Amino acid sequence: DGLSLVPDPDDVLAASEIGVVMLLFVIGLELSPARLWVMRRKVFGTGGLQVFVSAAAIAAIAALGVDGWKAPLVIGMGLALSSTAVGLQLLAERKELTTEHGRVAFAILLFQDLIAIPLLAAIPLLGAAKALERSAPPLDSVVIAVGAILAVVVGGRFLLRHLLRVVARANSVEVFTASALLVVVGNAWIMDQAGLSMGLGAFLAGVLLAESEFRHELESHIEPFKGLFLGLFFIAIGMSIDLDVIGEQPALIAAGVLGLLALKLAVLLAVGRFTGGLDLRQSMQLGAVLAMGGEFGFVVFAEGLKAGLIEPVLRDQLFVVIGLSMAATPLILLAVSRWLREHPSAEKEREPDDIDHEHPRVIIAGFGRVGQIVGRMLRAQKIPFTALENSAEQVDVSRRFGTKIYYGDPARPDLLRAAHAERAEVFVLTTDDPDANVRTARLVKRMYPHLKVFARARNRQHAFRLMDLDAEVTRETFHSSLVMGRKVMLALGVPADEAERNTERFRQHDEQLLRRQHLVYDDEAALVASSQEALADLETLFEADLSPDEAAEDERDDGDAGR
């Protein structure tokens, strides 16, 4: 009860459910069919297996103490879902979203968000079936539900975009915000009137608008309200958790929390290992992030209570189990990370590939975005090259597309000898890590001084370090920035020949500046002074290119500005 500042937490919970509705709308906006198709194997394969295996195991255990099959089914599905908000936040804080287990976790969470929609839609129908003591929902409920879904889909397909175009012409932020809220709340209301979950209508509306020109505008207007109501939702959930339940049945609650975490962890270990393509360490990290219950579990069990599928006492117990499992997740993740650090991987690391190409003219170290383009250009000219890549995943992907590539660390002398670097003419260094890049360049220059090294540089400091080794440097964003700058000048009405001339002049000026700054790059004061001097020189250089009439006009403009 706490301080009893809120007399009825259920009223707050009912009002705050709009936060979950808005969350589902935003999920729909981000779920374009094209994106889902690319991730289909991990989403529907790995994600589906995790949800259904976990739900089946939990439902089987729940059936030992709960009568019938509908309630255990709802319990199993509700506890099989993990927290999207907590899981993604933990992965983002640890910078693990782009890791192997991070991508698999995202795919699983995406499937859980998808499966939550039909689950929430089915609960009221299961409740109606139970009330009538039938094994299937009544026909009239099904017809009304299907009609409501069709109304939302057809209306969203043919009306929403036209409505938003009309609103956009008003050029009013307030009107567009009100319209965005109307879209979300209106579709939720239609579903609620049909006896389905309000979130289903919001999700469908989001999917229908995912590829519209209003997607990002809608998300930006809904996001503040979503954050506010979702925060209120979690507060209401906290107020709804009956602390007396823990005091009255501590052993039951502890067994529920530990059992949930252990069961889902075991399922995630197996799924990540055998269908997600993860090794044991990555599977453990996956399990630590997703073994908890999730916010959709609160919604599922609240809907189950409304539909008469579960009792209030059981709902309170499930709420406590989910809440404690979410609270324990950061601690579990820390414990797993510490254990992995203290126990280095016992699995055998992948050995470098045997290289059967004995007469390369070029060696490409790093076959990612940059190295692949260089390789394609060389292949088009029928110039033999050997590609080395330290990422096993990148090697496997490239081989699926028919590229002959070898796995191994190009900074290892034995691999360079196996690649017959002594017979090559050029060494192309495109690895992404600046430190590894410089380390490889230093080794190549020491072992094979005859090789001409062309190296990719991330920034000026990286370029200076490579220039110390007498490598030919190409800054990875410099030339694309020149192209973009020229296009911007053309868009602003600068004549094509002048834009081309200015772009080339800037390129020459900056490359000369790079060579001058290389001599003083370890002296920060001299480097800053050099940059300021170069900026003034560049302005003078461009002013000298103006015609006499243009120069006079600029002088008159400056004089007018001064007055």
From TrEMBL:
- Name a single GO cellular component: endomembrane system
Domain RCK N-terminal: where?
A: 359-473
**TM region positions:** 12-31, 43-65, 71-92, 104-129, 141-160, 172-190, 196-215, 227-246, 252-274, 286-305, 317-340
What SUPFAM superfamilies does the entry give? NAD(P)-binding Rossmann-fold domains
Signal peptide start-end: none
InterPro entries, per this entry? Answer: Cation/H_exchanger_TM (IPR006153), Na+/solute_symporter_sf (IPR038770), NAD(P)-bd_dom_sf (IPR036291), RCK_N (IPR003148)
Return one GO MF term.
antiporter activity
Places the protein is found: Endomembrane system
Coiled-coil spans are none
User: What's the protein name?
Assistant: RCK N-terminal domain-containing protein
Species annotation = Arenimonas donghaensis DSM 18148 = HO3-R19
